[in-house]
Amino acid sequence: MTQPSPRAVYRHRPLTRLWHWVNAVAIFILIGSGLMILNAHPQLYWGEYGANFDRAWIRFERFPGWITIPSTYNLALARRWHLFFALVLGFGLLVFLLGSLVNRHIARDLAIRRGELSRRHLWADFRVHLAFRFHAPESPRDYNSFQKLSYVAILFGALPLVILTGLTLSPGMNAAWPWLLDLFGGRASARSIHFLAATAITLFTVVHLVLVILAGPINEVRSMITGWWRVPEDEQP
């Protein structure tokens, strides 16, 4: 593979780039359709069941049409969008994780070494972030500690959790896998955990977009399209 410039590094393999863009579309539609579904009953509970007169741990106002999919109240259509892209999300994650094990993306780029969790190392990374320097000059291709921790938390925590709790909310899956209800403490608890996991993914997405803008959106987006990322001049060794 020919490197196009001495200041460019190959950061993202085709599988990572494909999954990134498919996932971006899926997450966007799942958030919007999920909020429309939540509009049908904007209260969350813990336990087996939850209904209008039960004690909710949180209540919402109805979400406005500009943030929901569809924009006008239509629970049936929102469920269709949600279920279809839930399949896209679930199978996409499975393919990505299997492929990342084969091409060693997880072992090479996401494995967290013991030293990276030390207080001194994390504090140094935090200070570098405050200075808007997001890449180590000696190894600009590598992810920093905060990137690794957040990616691992989403890949192996929030995404599997939102998928499993989503399956728990399906009556058909309850019949096939009744242990899911026991695992999450009932349908109402599964719905609450589903919401919390989806909120974590949404917050990660927002922070990710902010950091992309701060790091240079043209360079970052181009690298996720072509695979090649140009090292900023002030970050070169």
Topology of this structure?
Layout: E1 8-10, H1 14-40, E2 43-44, E3 58-59, H2 75-102, H3 105-110, H4 119-130, H5 145-168, H6 171-176, H7 179-184, H8 187-215, H9 217-226, E4 228-230
Antiparallel strand pairs: 1-4, 2-3
Can you describe what's shown?
The strands form two sheets. Strands 1-4 form a two-stranded antiparallel ribbon. A two-stranded antiparallel sheet has the order 2-3. Residues 1-5 have low confidence and may be disordered. It has helices at 14-40, 75-102, 105-110, 119-130, 145-168, 171-176, 179-184, 187-215, 217-226; strands spanning 8-10, 43-44, 58-59, 228-230. The radius of gyration is 20 Å and the shape is elongated. The chain is mainly α. It is built from nine helices and four strands. Helix 2 (75-102) crosses helix 5 (145-168), helix 5 runs antiparallel to helix 8 and helix 8 (187-215) packs across helix 9 (217-226). The two termini are 23 Å apart.
